[in-house]
Amino acid sequence: MCNRLQVRGNGPIYARLQLQGSKNGTLPCMAAALLHSGTTVLEGVPMIADVLTAAEILRSLGASVHIRDHCITIQAGQLTASDIPRDFMGRMRSSVIFMGALLARCGETGAVSPGGCVIGRRPIDYHLDGFRQMGASVVQKDDRMEVKGRKLKGCVIVLPGPSVGATENLMLASTAAEGITIIRNAAREPEITELAQCLRNMGFGIYGDGTSEIVIRGCNETVDSVYSIPGDRIAAGTWLLCCMQNRGELVLDYAPVESMAAVLQVVQRMGGEIHTEKNRITLKAPDRLKPIDYLETAPYPGFPTDMQSLLLPVLCRAEGSSCIRERVFSSRFRTVGELEKMGADICITDGGQCARIRGGCRLHGTSVDAPDLRGGAALIIAALGAEGITVINDTCHIQRGYEQIPETIRLLGGEACWLS
Ligand code: EPZ
């Protein structure tokens, strides 16, 4: 896989893009396929590194996985293992949600602590406490966790915070629990509803997804199913912000309009004109961009933490100062140092939780390192709006979540090629 990308912007964007399927929707649905010994088909899947890693995890467990034209067919007839191999846990944090599915299917699972983007503390205590409350035993030694529970029991689990991953993991595990499981203070992100719909198609009873109380009822006979993954709301936000950075007009097809209210509102606050239809967003970017005096990230339906790094380069060109406070993760401004190399003037305050962005800056191309997935995508936005050529190193982070990166940049009117 290529790891260095050269990018040059060419001014205003006039483009129409077909959005990729949702990364964070696809991964839990792939884990869910382990709950059924027949066939589960997922359509509209993005061809990105994290999906390929998830496919490798499934194969390592004995499932067969066939990928063709954004469609994945998974057959999990006979599993041969219940442990998630160390390498995959290190590569991708979402590997952890295979634990809930394996616990349900095999009555046991084991793994080391998950890796993934370095964006602050990312414990999994809510996940493990939830397994315990369902009656599983959890043993942790060094970095290894072993979870066993052949007879899980439905119960009421109150999450200390609305964690997306913990909600997904506990939904998956509780499909095998006797009786009903209720998850309170559950995450309300659209990806939870995506997993719930996929599980319903398989025959499980899931109610209340999209609210903070989810009820799960297992079933004895799962069925073959097909689920179509919606468009990726964070990728949609990424390309909209590219257009805001460069001016012009962008049409996004296959966009999950309903789950993007907070992001579209921010684009409008900056002066963008938005028009939405059922699955389409049209943006006309302003010539003069208004700053955002204050914005904080929050769990859904608030402004997504995944979008805040993407906003930073855009606010560098706003006419005035902006302030963004990160309230979900403890350390998610690592891309600021890279943007500073390109001429950004951003000051991090409040113990690393707040970024104050001075507007009116013209960024210039240079060599930068992608610090994580969304921070890396922020560098693409910056590079497209910068004067000259930018070389982005460590793009493996970006390829975890975005497909066809140089091709998309070219569709947006920019120039992009991989460097050896
Ligand atoms: C999911 O991560 C997403 N990843 C992240 O997107 C996203 O940023 C995040 O949700 C928040 O929306 C996937 O869906 C694969 P959390 P997740 O558990 O599930 C604390 C991207 O770029 N917490 O909701 O790991 C945690 O420390 C990725 O696509 C605990 O304390 O996030 C954090 O402060 C990056 N204990 C907060 O909750 C736990 O057991 C929210 O984390 C679990 C979480």
Determine the number of helices (DSSP H or I, runs of at least 4 residues).
14
Give average pLDDT, whole number.
96
What binds here, in terms of ligands, is: ligand EPZ
Distance between the termini: 10 Å
Uncertain parts: none
How much strand?
A: 25-35%
How would a crystallographer describe the biggest sheet?
4 strands, mixed
What's the count of strands?
23
Overall structural class, as computed from helix and strand content, comes to alpha+beta
Fraction in helix? 25-40%
Sequence-ordered SSE layout with sheet pairings:
Blueprint (H helix, E strand, L loop, with lengths): L3 E5 L4 E6 L4 H10 L6 E5 L5 H12 L3 E5 L2 E5 L10 H6 L5 H10 L1 E5 L12 H9 L3 E5 L2 E5 L7 E3 L5 H11 L5 E5 L5 H13 L2 E3 L5 E5 L7 E4 L4 H14 L1 E6 L7 H9 L3 E5 L2 E6 L9 E2 L11 H9 L5 E4 L9 H7 L4 E4 L4 E4 L9 E3 L3 H13 L3 E5 L2 H4 L5 H7 L3 E5 L1
Helix pairs in contact: 1-2, 1-4, 1-7, 4-6, 5-6, 6-7, 8-10, 8-12, 10-12, 11-12
Summarize the structure in short.
With 420 residues, the protein is of the alpha+beta class. It has helices spanning 23-32, 49-60, 86-91, 97-106, 125-133, 164-174, 190-202, 233-246, 261-269, 308-316, 335-341, 373-385, 396-399, 405-411, and strands at 4-8, 13-18, 39-43, 64-68, 71-75, 108-112, 137-141, 144-148, 156-158, 180-184, 205-207, 213-217, 225-228, 248-253, 273-277, 280-285, 295-296, 322-325, 346-349, 354-357, 367-369, 389-393, 415-419.
